[in-house]
Fold VOC family protein.
Amino acid sequence: MTEATRHEPGAPCWVSLMVHSLDTIKEFYADLFGWEYEPGPQHLGPYVRALLDGREVAGLGRLPADRHLPVAWTPYLATEDADATAESIRSCGGTIGVGPLDAGEAGRLVIGSDPGGAVFGAWQARAHAGTALRGTPGTPVWHELITRETASVGKFYQVVFGHEARPCDPDDDGDRLTLSVAGRPVASVHGLGSALPRPRGPHWMTYFEVADVDAAAGLVAGLGGEVLRPPGPGAAGPEATVADPEGAVFTLVTTAPAG
């Protein structure tokens, strides 16, 4: 277990999910990950922060009744200036959906999409630094952008967030990039070409650490979620792709301990 106290600009610093039935989804993740909750900023409506051992790990909010938006986990990348980041997103071919706006005293945010259409956030921290735990079960441990091709979208994140974008292992099949900040890998990009799922299109996938992928996937099904890809080997360890009761897709993973 590692306490995260500072997030470098460009590194994922928070993950948030907006849903229709907040109480139902709070119960699902409490049973799956052991989360407890405290109120968060209400700038976009009812919102709670999920806690593990009293430390903040993720956010859950309620969508306005008249907003029929896809329910999906959204990663936020750290920025020192949300307004400048918003301008850079626009100038590099992305779009802005929300903000820039203040989330009370917590910070300032932008929600946008890259040129491929994948939605992400940018967070300028004030009182709220972001995810406060790393590596323990129930925390987000990785983010992967699933898109059509990596070349142009990789350049977008390089310019907007200062990422170093490098091809993955040449022996690895497929179109893949690793995004790094100050030499540390923070996310990946996977280009699927024509194999990209049509209903979802380009999107960010959040990976959550669990102690046992098989047990966690079984629990998802028992709690009203769905197992989309059963447990099997992954790049970092055993993993399974699942969806919560409102259809938000995420990946369960048990990462191999550092040797």
In short: Residues 22-33 form the longest helix (12 residues).
